[in-house]
Design a protein that fits this description.
mainly beta, four-stranded antiparallel sheet, 11 strands, about 60% strand, about 120 residues, seven-stranded mixed sheet, single chain
Length: about 120
């Protein structure tokens, strides 16, 4: 059993900041890439940012320069620091992780955390 638990969402005014956290727990051999996706009403889920186990990052152009992704491998946790938030950043944010258990790799998802940016 593997669980991803997210925290840190909420309501913030435009220009403000939020920090999302996602901790993986359970029994597994290793965590590969971890990342954050978001889904706004009526839109498809999209990648926001991802980080590999050795720290390589991939940031969506729409948030580049405003959002930073990082991870603490010792805590099996990934963070998303969101600065200069805009109303168009409003969405449900989902944590994602590629995890190897018993020799098999698969993706896991968190339950989602709402981020609302008011203008």
């Amino acid at each position: 059993q593997v669980t991803l638990v997210e925290s840190g969402g909420g309501l913030v005014q435009a220009g403000g900041s939020l920090r999302l956290s996602c901790a993986a727990s359970g029994s597994f051999f290793s965590i590969n890439a971890m990342g954050w996706y978001r889904q706004a009403p009526g839109k498809q889920r999209e990648l926001v940012a991802a980080v590999t186990s050795n720290g390589g990052t991939n940031i969506a152009d729409s948030v580049k320069g405003r959002f930073t992704i990082s991870r603490d491998n010792a805590k099996n946790t990934v963070y998303l620091q969101m600065n200069s938030l805009k109303p168009e950043d409003t969405a449900v944010y989902y944590c994602n992780a590629g995890i190897t258990r018993w020799g098999q790799w698969r993706e896991y998802w968190g339950q989602g955390t709402q981020v609302t940016v008011s203008s």
